[in-house]
Write the structure tokens for this entry.
Amino acid sequence: MDAGAVDRSAEMDLLVAIGRAFQPFSSLTKCESDMMKRNTFVEGLVACAVVVGFFVAGALLAPDVAFTQSGPAAIATLKGDPVRGRTLHEGCIDCHFIDAEDVGPRHRGVVGRRAGIVKDYGYSLALKNSGLTWDEATLDRWLIDPSALVPGTKMLFKVDNAQDRADIIAYLKEKK
């Protein structure tokens, strides 16, 4: 076969296999054929339900898995890139500026600052009373799931990727 040709043999094998799967129906009575098709359809639905169940279970368990794999130990092992963090932080400017309050409080000086103390910003009571200080580990946990860390907070945005979180935190560390 020349380099530009496309090998369609796998596709043809699949089509032949599908055709064979339905061949037995041709030798059955209409009633038997309908019943087998219905059973095959039900079995297919059950198989799909099982697969969907696994996806749903995985989605429900994923935040717990991400949280346990992304604590202080994970952030300590990742080297954050502040240049990439600046680019990623642009996704935060819908709510946060470096030097001014907006929907969220300013980010300049956030690393090392106690949560809920910027005077010109109306924090949730939950965050004001959290007692948190924004160090690298706390910021990492916060970005994983703000509502899990401080139930009742206003912030709902999450950063799932550990390297993205490390890069954003590295950028924020530079903004003293």
Residues 62-70 have pLDDT under 50 and may be disordered. Residues 28-69 form one domain.
